[in-house]
């Protein structure tokens, strides 16, 4: 029986300034099928979702819903056509009850204005019974665990008579048990003839729940095929099997074996467990893993922004118990955080003030800012790192992502850091700026510095790192040396484990 | 093309200096409607009237720039006033120097203690600034009543009035004090690393923390500064009135916040400064003065003040 697709994308193109995000994407999504989108970060999965739900509009190409051409310009329009998106970050309101969340914004009323609570509660109960979830409609969201919260979101989606439910990495914050429950719900939705788009990096899950698979790579659709016809290994190959671009700069990776940072048995309950690794002088240590593997949390703890439950860190042989990042910074470590806009930069402040922020106090004379030094230093780094800015007095919020990131790096170079922890240093940055940042990293380590680079982009890790640590579910899954590094090895360590 | 550019530039200039234009406009209007406004005597009057609020608003600027708020300033001022008056009363023969030392010491002790408690609760215990200082507002006011049994402390030595009532040459001492405090505050905020860190913490605490700034110390310290300057303001007030009363400085927190906000310092921290606060102080001072000269009752002045605060904040929102 040839069914009609619920949603069809035809030759979709999308470009952001300087980056082609999607080119010539044509996919059909059928009712009653779980359609998996697979690809590395930046492959274009979320852009596809955003085009379907109306957050973005395609530059070229058409979207059809049940054969009818549509052009959504906001989320509301797509919702009215029965499309709901469940985002990775939960969007339920903690201080409202389950049924209030389900009916938020479209409350059932009686006599015009008064809320009909009885009916909403009954309706919520009915919805849960059909799907087979057992949550008290009158429980507060804050009393639920993550899995249950996710279920509430799903029920909210279903209660809007959604014909399509899009799930963006729904399992990234769920325990194994919760994942099972989620899958049961997905099975029921499938029986109800709902079309499901499912995004996940976890290959095992995809094998278990997916019907159809579309693999994306660099904005191009590699292939759409039934899940039953592929193996996990084939998925990995399809996802990463690209020719390496020649824009990486690999440092020599001096084999001095002088340990600068020694982390042993570091643990923060619920985040990561028994993490041990060493960083050598003059190397770039890549840290690979899926989102939620605990990489960022480990780095923040090493940096002193969080306190470990157990374990020890040593810098240049000396153990430290940092009360705050200041203690670690004074020992010569700098952090380039994963979210530069919220954690790395004072957006309203200018390039000069951001560059000098970590050293202004050290360089102050009797507490007074040395304005001459500050100006000269910022001009020097603008020149040295070719930061594109009208002047040192420009607010950093007006700079492009790549130039913003250079300002964050300049801040630590000016503070004379010897170790840089870089968390997703090139996220959201165009190709050119990426390449410049790799070059800076190479220069830094070849002058005796050391870098830990957390990245979710495998080609980047393989292209830049001298050694790779792979993390999975809060634990170190293994180390891979430069010579042995291959995408398949790292990917399988990150998603399947070493067994 | 050139014209267009000039228009954009001038629009930006107006946008960035709204308060300056507002102030000039206010000045002109006052001069037109109130002939007596632009006399030296009256201008000095305006300055005297804003001098106490200036001290308190100065501390408030530090707090607001760090993304906090201090509601306890009026109560701390009253407490410092009654404590200072009670102490100086024990020294009927005190000279000017002794009086000044007493004023400074009382400000440091009372303001310091109240500020430390605020700072500790906010920076260490993570109590929201609004709540912590609201509590202090009640505690300090209550203590002022308890300490005096709600009776004004009269019979102070004449030297106690030096700061509030006397002049050095033609210029009242309270104005000189205000200028000194504003200048020091300006220098701290715009020229020192500490000042830079206050702006950083107010802009984004997470960024500041990850850059190695001790967010805790910065947040702690601004409440101590605010406490000290509020207490100093309270003592100048006591000196001016020649008594200490538990009921003094009612609503001063709002005047101080109004001056800071009206100048254009962001209530979310990180943006603004002493210059803006000075604008705010003048706007409030001139409006009150002009309305008084026009014979508008003080009740209506309060109404006008409320409306003006609102307008100022709306302008601030619009500017963003």
UniProtKB/TrEMBL annotation, chain A:
It is found in: Cell membrane. SMART domains: AAA. Keywords: ATP-binding, Cell membrane, Membrane, Nucleotide-binding, Repeat, Sugar transport, Translocase, Transport. It is a peripheral membrane protein. The keyword Transport applies. Pfam families: ABC_tran. GO terms for cellular component: plasma membrane. Residues 7-243, 254-498 form the ABC transporter domain. One of its GO terms (molecular function) is ATP binding. SUPFAM superfamilies: P-loop containing nucleoside triphosphate hydrolases. InterPro entries: AAA+_ATPase, ABC_carbohydrate_import_ATPase, ABC_transporter-like_ATP-bd, ABC_transporter-like_CS, P-loop_NTPase. This is Sugar ABC transporter ATP-binding protein. The lineage of its organism: Bacteria, Bacillati, Bacillota, Clostridia, Lachnospirales.
């Amino acid at each position: 029986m040839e069914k009609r697709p619920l949603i069809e994308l035809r030759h979709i193109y999308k470009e952001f300034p300087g980056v082609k995000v999607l080119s010539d994407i044509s996919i059909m999504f059928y009712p009653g099928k779980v359609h998996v989108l697979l690809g590395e970060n930046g492959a274009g999965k979320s852009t596809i979702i955003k085009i379907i739900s109306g957050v973005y509009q395609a530059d070229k190409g058409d979207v059809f819903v049940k054969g009818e051409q549509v052009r959504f310009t906001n989320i509301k329009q797509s919702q009215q056509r029965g499309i709901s998106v469940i985002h990775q970050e939960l969007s339920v309101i903690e201080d409202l009850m389950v049924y209030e969340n389900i009916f938020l914004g479209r409350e059932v009323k009686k006599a015009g204005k008064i809320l009909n609570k009885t009916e909403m509660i009954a309706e919520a109960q009915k919805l849960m019974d059909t799907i087979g979830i057992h949550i008290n409609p009158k429980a507060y969201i804050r009393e639920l665990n993550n899995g249950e919260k996710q279920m509430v979101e799903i029920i909210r989606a279903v209660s809007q008579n959604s014909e399509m439910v899009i799930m963006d990495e729904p399992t990234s914050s769920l325990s194994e048990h919760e994942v099972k429950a989620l899958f049961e719900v997905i099975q029921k939705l499938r029986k109800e003839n709902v079309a499901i788009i499912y995004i996940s990096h976890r290959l095992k899950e995809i094998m278990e729940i997916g019907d159809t698979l579309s693999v994306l790579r660099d904005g191009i659709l590699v292939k759409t095929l039934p899940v039953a016809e592929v193996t996990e290994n084939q998925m990995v190959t399809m996802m990463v099997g690209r020719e390496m671009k020649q824009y990486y700069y690999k440092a020599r990776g001096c084999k001095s074996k002088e340990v600068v940072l020694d982390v042993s048995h570091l643990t923060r309950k619920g985040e990561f467990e028994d993490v041990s690794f060493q960083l050598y002088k003059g190397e770039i240590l890549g840290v690979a893993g899926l989102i939620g593997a605990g990489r960022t949390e480990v780095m923040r703890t090493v940096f002193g922004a969080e306190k470990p439950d157990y374990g020890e860190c040593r810098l240049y042989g000396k153990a430290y118990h940092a009360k705050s990042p200041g203690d670690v910074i004074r020992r010569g470590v700098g952090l380039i955080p994963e979210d530069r806009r919220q954690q790395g930069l004072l957006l309203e402040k200018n390039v000069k003030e951001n560059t000098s922020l970590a050293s202004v106090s050290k360089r102050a004379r009797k507490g007074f800012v040395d304005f001459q030094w500050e100006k000269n230093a910022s001009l020097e780094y603008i020149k040295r790192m070719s930061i594109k800015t009208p002047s040192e007095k420009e607010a950093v919020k007006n700079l492009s992502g790549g130039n913003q990131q250079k300002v964050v790096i300049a801040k630590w170079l000016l503070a004379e850091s010897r170790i840089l922890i870089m968390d997703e240093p090139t996220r959201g940055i165009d190709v050119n700026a990426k390449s410049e940042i790799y070059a800076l990293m190479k220069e830094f380590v070849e002058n005796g510095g050391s870098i830990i680079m957390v990245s979710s982009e495998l080609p980047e890790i393989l292209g830049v790192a001298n050694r790779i640590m792979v993390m999975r579910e809060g634990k170190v899954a293994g180390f891979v040396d430069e010579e042995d590094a291959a995408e398949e090895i790292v990917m399988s360590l990150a998603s399947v484990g070493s067994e | 093309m050139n014209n267009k550019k000039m228009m954009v530039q001038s629009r930006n200039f107006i946008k960035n200096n709204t308060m300056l234009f507002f102030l000039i406009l206010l000045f002109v209007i006052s001069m037109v409607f109130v002939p007596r406004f632009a006399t030296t005597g009256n201008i000095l009057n305006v300055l005297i009237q804003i001098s106490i609020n200036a001290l308190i608003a100065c501390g408030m600027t530090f707090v607001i720039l760090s993304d906090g708020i201090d509601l306890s300033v009026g109560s701390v001022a009253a407490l410092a006033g009654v404590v200072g008056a009670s102490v100086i009363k024990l020294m009927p023969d005190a000279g000017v120097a002794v009086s000044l030392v007493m004023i400074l010491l009382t400000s440091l002790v009372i303001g310091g203690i109240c500020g430390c408690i605020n700072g500790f609760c906010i920076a260490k215990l993570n109590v929201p600034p609004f709540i912590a200082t609201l509590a202090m507002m009640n505690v300090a006011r209550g203590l002022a009543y308890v300490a005096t049994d709600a009776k004004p402390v009269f019979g102070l030595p004449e030297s106690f009035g030096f700061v509030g009532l006397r002049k050095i040459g033609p210029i009242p001492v309270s104005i000189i004090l205000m200028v000194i405090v504003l200048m020091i505050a300006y220098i701290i905020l715009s020229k020192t690393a500490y000042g830079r860190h206050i702006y950083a913490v107010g802009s984004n605490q997470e960024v500041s923390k990850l850059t190695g700034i001790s967010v805790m110390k910065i947040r702690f310290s601004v409440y101590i500064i605010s406490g000290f300057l509020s207490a100093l303001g309270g003592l100048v007030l006591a000196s001016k009135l020649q008594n200490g009363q538990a009921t003094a400085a009612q609503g001063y927190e709002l005047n101080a916040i109004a001056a800071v906000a009206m100048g254009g310092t962001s209530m979310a921290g990180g943006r603004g400064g002493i210059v803006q606060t000075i604008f705010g102080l003048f706007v409030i001072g001139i409006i009150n003065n002009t309305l008084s000269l026009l014979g508008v009752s003080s009740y209506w002045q309060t109404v006008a003040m409320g409306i003006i605060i609102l307008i100022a904040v709306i302008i601030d929102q619009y500017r963003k």
